[in-house]
Amino acid sequence: MSATGLPPAPAPAPPTGRITGPSVAATTAVFVRLKLSLLRNGTRQSTGRSAAFVGSTVLAALVGALGLLGLVALRGDEYGPDTGVVLVAMLALGWAFLPLFVGVDETLDPGRLAMLPLRPSPLLVAQLASGLVGSGPLFTLLLVVGAVLVAAHGVAAALVAVVAAPLVLVFCVTLTRALATANARLLTSRRGRDLAVLSGLLVAFGLQGLNLALSRMADEDGGLAPMRPLADVLGWLPPASAVRAVRLADEGSAFGAVLALATTAGGLALLLWWWRRTLTTLLTAPDASSLQPPAGAGPDRGRHEGGLAGLLPTGRTGTVMLRVLRYAWRDPKAKMGWATSLGMAMLLPLVLTVQDGGSVYTACWAAGMLGLLMYNQFGGDYSGFWLVAATIGSPRDAFVELRARMLVICLLGLPLMVAVVLGTAALFDDWESLPTGLGLTLAMLGALLAVGAMTSAWLPYSIPQEGAMKNVAPGQSGLAWGSLLGGTLVGAVLVAPVGALALFLHGEPAGWLVVPVGAVWGAALCWGALRLAARRTADALPEILAAVSKG
Amino acid sequence: MAENRGTGIPPIPGEPEPEGERPPAVRVRGLWKTFGEQVAVSGIDLDLPTGRFVGLVGPNGAGKTTTLSMVTGLLRPDSGTVEVVGRDVWRDPVDVKARIGVLPEGLRLFERLSGRELLTYMGRMRDLDPDELESRTEQLLDVLDLSGAQHKLVVDYSTGMRKKIGLAAALLHNPEVLFLDEPFEGVDPVSAQAIRGVLERYTDSGATVVFSSHVMELVESLCDWVAVLAAGRIRAHGPTAEVRGEAESLHHAFLELVGARGNPDGARLDWLGGAR
């Protein structure tokens, strides 16, 4: 893989003289051609992929061009230049996090280059040049040009703009490559990949936060005024300072403009120096895979299982529950599923009530989110499902297996759901709806768990372990969406009788009846579904194993 | 024992063949499997003797993994029957699953459990007595040199360690027949020796090991019975010495059986090692 275990000694000098390696120009040409080939070959694999590639390139160019036009339209707006500064800062932030999500493109994976006789400087230039090829840089260039055009009115400003735009682009590409190189070990290690998977959660919640913040800002007067304070801060930092330089030149502050440009140029130089250093280290120093950890190293989890194992029932039920709970904590995909479902179960009713002023019944969303956890139970096991299959001999075994998985969801979800129902009742001071609301959510959870158990057995699909955004193996997304949508519809039908009862008894003293009715109804649905799903699971173990091992 | 096997002599010369008295450990009849257009296994009939170290050999893509998956109930055959210790794998799965141990190739373990937790999980799933399970886990970890890494997550294990913990999980319930798919693939010599030691001890007790490999030297030194598989068919089977026949080694016999010849174009690489 990488230069593991190789001594960091320079290449032995042959009698004819020192091998200097290919020149900067030659290396750069090779890398740019390599990048172009990679782009081209990426489209070759399937029509879907090439369509996606062409589509995304066109979309990037289109959105970039629209952004450029929009920014040009802001010329003359008081806050236009501030918007440009903030936009460029956002772009830089995007470039910084890019390698985490998009993955590292092969032209910058040092591990693939370690065995080639390349010196750091040509490699650096070549990687930078190949980094400038692609739809991402094109998109960035369009927006950056827009950002500098907003402020450039005079000749001096235009001159600064001509320097600033390419400088910003090169800065962004250098930033992403330097960070990717620095994190190369992390990104290829297990812990790094785990973090990358979990970072999907960060992005989901982060986007939500950004959305909220932006809508709040826009609320104030609908203008771009909120950009001013942001631009005042970000304008001092590279690469946004280069954009600020254009405005300073426009205002006649030559010194200020040069200083602001120099800030970005200095930042770029610093980045290049740091990148070169990490690259050299990466290409010459051994990585963890070639270093033997001392015997007995690693976390000591204790010889005996902790309190949790003792609290769970014995036999297969407790064993399965313990494993599912451990996976919920240790497996990034499972953790993300649990965190999303539990987090959304808490937040969604709250958000919905804040937006439309709902009722206790919005707590049904919590039941829905929890019910989703039961879907595709075996998909999360991936090909490890064979261990389960090897111990399932009868429908009874399958029943206990599925029931244990359902119990874990109830163990964590039921208290949360009851809390959400009580919370929404308290929020609206709507205690009148509490009994019927509680009964309905209980029935709903039961119905969705039941449907989840059935789809787990009949419509299993694989959840690939790698990749934050990849939750379905190629070719199985129809199955996944089908089971989700179909399951939700069936769940709604199953819960309808209790819904009707809740409607009928809403606000009546007899409303409390809905609680036991809902609980018993939900439990009965679960029991019935488990019976059916267990029979199917026991009969179709090889088929389920094949379905969940894909990707 | 190992030296004895190395010579290829049947274990008890002069005495009646054991398979004459005991029913075969594995009985396969008319086994077929196709994936789309591709025929992976085309009509295998095979009896594997009880109490032997059986090698299933063949080049890559011969159908070894497909065959073992179907024999162990992990893959449903298109047609044919499989009996393990006299029980039909597809009609009597409860009984069969309790009597076999499996180490498949290319399938994951529950890797977010530590090695010890994985063994405890499998033992409990198989309903072993807790004290017995504890003592077996301890011994297996010890014998397979995994005690030092028992609290490490399996996801952080090396290939050799994964194979060893997989083997431990397969042996935990003391199965009658053990199926191992490429147990030595990617395994360093130290781990290979540990695995080998455990397997030899296990077969000495009268249990059956069926393992697949394409490393002939290994098969020749370990197995007293082999079946050669190529292109989804059995090309030869029987005691190792018989299959080897007049050939110099099992390796040569194998190449002849699967119809492989040296590549004559190799002679063209005359520049290799020449003036630089």
Automatic annotation (TrEMBL), chain A:
The keyword Membrane applies. Keywords: Membrane, Transmembrane, Transmembrane helix. Residues 1-20 are annotated as: Disordered. It comes from the Bacteria. Coiled coil: none annotated. The keyword Membrane applies. The chain crosses the membrane at residues 20-39, 51-73, 85-104, 124-149, 155-175, 195-214, 254-275, 336-354, 360-378, 406-428, 440-459, 479-504, 510-530. This is ABC-2 type transport system permease protein. It comes from Streptomyces zhaozhouensis.
Automatic annotation (TrEMBL), chain B:
The keyword NADP does not apply. It is found in: Cell membrane. Its main location: membrane. GO terms for molecular function: ATP binding; ATP hydrolysis activity. It holds the Pfam family ABC_tran. Residues 1-24 are annotated as: Disordered. Keywords: Antibiotic resistance, ATP-binding, Nucleotide-binding, Transport. One of its GO terms (cellular component) is plasma membrane. It comes from the Bacteria. Residues 26-256 form the ABC transporter domain. It is a peripheral membrane protein. The keyword Transport applies. SMART domains: AAA. One of its GO terms (biological process) is response to antibiotic. This is ABC-2 type transport system ATP-binding protein. It comes from Streptomyces zhaozhouensis. The lineage of its organism: Bacteria, Bacillati, Actinomycetota, Actinomycetes, Kitasatosporales.
